[in-house]
Amino acid sequence: MSEVTDLFKESMGRLATGVTVVTSEVDGRPWGVTVSACCSISMEPPLLLISLFTKNASTEAIMEQQRFGVSILSNDQTNVAKAGAKPGTAKFFEEFTDFDHDGKTHRVKDALTHVHCKVDNVVVAGDHTIFIGLVEHVTVSEMKQPLLHFHRQFGSFIDELETAVK
Ligand SMILES: Cc1cc2nc3c(=O)[nH]c(=O)nc-3n(C[C@H](O)[C@H](O)[C@H](O)COP(=O)(O)O)c2cc1C
Question: Which domain of life is it from (predicted)?
Answer without folding.
Answer: Bacteria
